[in-house]
Amino acid sequence: MRPDHFDHFDAVAVQPLSVVRHLALLYATQGPAYAGVTDEGIVICLAGFRLLRPRTAEGWAIMSTAMPAHWRWMHRTVAQMLPEHIRLLNLRRVEITVEATFLQGQRWAEALGFVNETPDGMAQFGPNGERHYLYARV
Questions:
Q1: Number of Cβ within a 10 Å radius of residue 100
Q2: Does residue 44 contact residue 14 with C-beta atoms inside 8 Å?
Q3: What is the spatial distance between Cα 35 and Cα 4, in angstroms, rounded to a whole number?
Q4: Is the pTM of this model over 0.90?
Q5: pLDDT in tens, the chain (138 residues)
Q6: Cα angle at 36 between 31 and 40, to 5 degrees?
């Protein structure tokens, strides 16, 4: 497994995640982005930062259905890269949202040092009206 820089023009890299391809391509133009690639060349996730304003970014991750088999690798990689990018981008705040029913994602956010700032959630936040929680690492 390796994190590769995700070039927003690399349509082949996002093909396995075609349902969200347009979102990944958009986000990759707004800050640093990476593709998690297996040794066999299969893209299992895309992740990065979308700069919202000076010193504030939104962290994002889009995962394929193959991702659960690689959680340990994903956690180690993100845990290592997150503080490096916070320093390199001179960030004071990184925000992420997690769908309210995605308990593993909530645990992962907290393991990475994010704090839930919306304990009641944000109604109608997801594309299909899902409730999300806003987490921040400051």
A1: 19
A2: no
A3: 5
A4: no
A5: 455 554 433 444 444 455 566 666 677 777 888 888 777 777 788 888 999 999 999 998 887 777 788 888 888 888 998 999 999 999 999 999 999 999 988 999 999 999 999 999 999 998 889 999 999 999
A6: 145
